[in-house]
Amino acid sequence: MKPRKIKEGVSWLGYIDWDRRLFDSLMPIPDGTSYNAYLVQGKEKTALLDTADPIAIHALQAQLETVPNVDFIVAHHAEQDHSGAIPDVLKKYKNAKVVTNPNAKRLLIDLLNIPDERFITIEDGETLSLGGKTLKFIYTPWVHWPETMCSYLQEDKILFSCDFFGSHLATSDLYATNEAQVQEAAKVYFSMIMMPFRVAIQKNLDKLKDCDISMIAPSHGPIYNRPDLILSAYKDWVSGPPKNLVVLPYVSMHDSTRKMVEYFVSALSERGVRVELFNLAAIDIGKMAAALVDAATIVVGTPTVMANPHPSVVYAVYLANAIKPKVKFASIIGSYSWGTKIVEQISGMLSNLKVEMLTPVISKGLPKEADFKALDNLADAVAARHKELDLT
Ligand code: FEO
């Protein structure tokens, strides 16, 4: 892809990765991703904002062929999917300096062996004039690492946000034209990268209120030329109340747990509680993470494997605990044949979540009348809790 003009003197550079299916060897990205860099050319100086993942160096090199000089490489974030090509760009432009904050500088030295003398460090709120183009640096920690920051191009009112507001989505659209698709991808991204840091993100959102933003240019996924789309979504995801929703990840081996899950979904629906059901044998775990952004309750369904939860359930529960959703209630439904510790084990794995644990329902073998009655009681308890909180 050739450079794409956004405004006079401002261009998109980078690489659309249509084929990547796993990020950080962890996060499924079924729709690929992009590594966006931006070139800002003032009357006197030129700045490259971020670079790209090392696998995309060839694309960046080709795009920079006609750029005679880069004075500054602004590093918003030290993670290699944005910083990985910095050494290569520094080699090409011998006098270029990496502009970043002191925390990012330390990480970039550790991760990429960039020499100390190639850095200029800036403070929160400091500006850098390129001649008719002024970048203001805004520290925004924990979007996604502690050193992350944004740049605000004052004359064009563009916020360059790096991971903040990003989405893993490969598309030829420069802008977020298919808003529903972009918002869904951004929500998965938020759930797995940003959600654990909601308090810090709320502070960053508050900080951005001082900027008159006409465009948000993240380093993954399309640019928002209607920034309110993603700003209002983040506001809801970060600090909005949870919804009248149960997220139910489960695995079944011999149908006992599946019968319980199906009965329970029906029982919740009869009581006006929405359910998102995820069969862990067949899902993209990112979809479960995104559903947890809104859920008030998580109920985990598992059979017993050698007295323990099924390994796929262990992974899903570990992830749910790590990303710290807003859930307020939790429970467990499942089955066993000769013995089980699934309740103790799953309860212990949810220690990050400040939840009220509702009475689990565990069936010996196929569920029987008493088990179905217990599932009705659990559905009653969930519906009552959601009603008390007036969740919609
Ligand atoms: Fe897209 Fe945290 O790197």
Q: Can you describe what's shown?
A:
A seven-stranded mixed β-sheet has the order 1-2-5-6-7-8-9. Strands 15, 16, 17, 20, 21 and 22 form a six-stranded parallel β-sheet that branches. Helix 11 links the parallel strand 20 (329-336) and strand 21. The two termini are 44 Å apart. It is an alpha/beta fold and 392 residues long. The protein is built from twelve helices and 22 strands. The longest helix is centred in the last third of the chain and has 20 residues, at 369-388. It is 34% helix and 26% strand. Residues 77, 79, 81-82, 144, 163, 219-220 line the site of MU-OXO-diiron.
Q: pLDDT under 50 segments (min length 5)? A: none
Number of E-type strands = 22
Content of β-strand: 25-35%
Query: How many H/I helical runs?
Result: 12
- Which cofactors or ions or other ligands sit in this model? MU-OXO-diiron
The pLDDT mean sits at: 97
Largest sheet: 7 strands, mixed
Distance from first to last alpha carbon: 44 Å
Q: How does the overall form come out from the CA principal axes?
A: elongated
User: Residue share in helices?
Assistant: 25-40%
Structural class: alpha/beta
Determine Rg (CA atoms, Å): 24 Å
Across the major sheet, the strand order is 1-2-5-6-7-8-9
